[in-house]
Specification:
The protein is mostly helical and about 200 residues long. It has one domain. The chain is about 80% helix and about 0% strand. The protein contains 7 helices and no strands. Helix 2 (about 35-50) runs parallel beside helix 7, helix 4 (about 75-90) crosses helix 6 and helix 6 packs across helix 7.
């Protein structure tokens, strides 16, 4: 039996584990709705590309998305699980790059939170969003965090427009952003090598 078959089989098995980890995190918080379906699909895609190191991240994203959708508040436990998984297994990028990404994500998140509070009197970027950004930086590094932020913002914009169109969201009314940002993180994990190659080409 040819070796590529085993590579394909192993990648598919890890992808299934990623989807199950994401779904398990979701149902641990007894979330409602269908957000877990695309989240699990992107988790499987990400794990198939990035390897088993993002399995703790898949679980945490499923759990945090469920909590955010139900109560718009995420407890600290999922973030500790993500950090423990990173310490034990590492991330998609080397640990020093991951630490730099986490620091950048924290600085960015706190800056956006501060500016939003000063200008609008309310946080435009919640504490859970800041923590998820830091976790994304740990696992994906600086460039991965920036890509996750870009993709997550696009997902969030589409979600917000859909809610506004259906009359479920009023002007300046907050809505759960963690599911969109989580899908951005997993999508970024799946295409991170291609993204970094593109950045290298642009830098030349």
């Amino acid at each position: 039996m040819p070796a590529p078959f085993f590579v394909f089989l192993g990648g598919g098995f890890v992808a299934v584990l990623g989807g199950l980890a994401c779904a398990t995190g979701w149902f641990c918080c007894r979330g409602r709705g269908l957000w877990w379906l695309p989240l699990c699909g992107i988790a499987a895609w990400a794990v198939d590309s990035a390897g088993a190191v993002v399995l703790p991240l898949c679980f945490v994203l499923g759990c945090s998305a469920a909590c955010d959708l139900r109560e718009m508040e995420v407890p600290d436990l999922p973030w500790w699980v993500a950090c423990a998984g990173w310490l034990l297994f590492g991330g998609v990028v080397p640990r020093p790059v991951g630490l730099a990404g986490a620091v950048l994500a924290l600085v960015f998140g706190l800056f956006v939170w501060f500016v939003g509070t000063r200008l609008y009197g309310e946080a435009a970027y919640g504490g859970a969003d800041v923590k998820l950004g830091a976790v994304a930086g740990l696992y994906l590094g600086v460039s991965g965090f920036l890509l996750a932020l870009l993709l997550g913002s696009l997902f969030g914009l589409a979600h917000g427009l859909w809610l506004r169109r259906g009359g479920k969201l009023g002007p300046r009314q907050p809505f759960p952003f963690i599911p969109a940002l989580g899908m951005g993180v997993l999508a970024a994990a799946s295409v991170l090598p291609l993204w970094e190659h593109l950045l290298q080409l642009l830098a030349q």
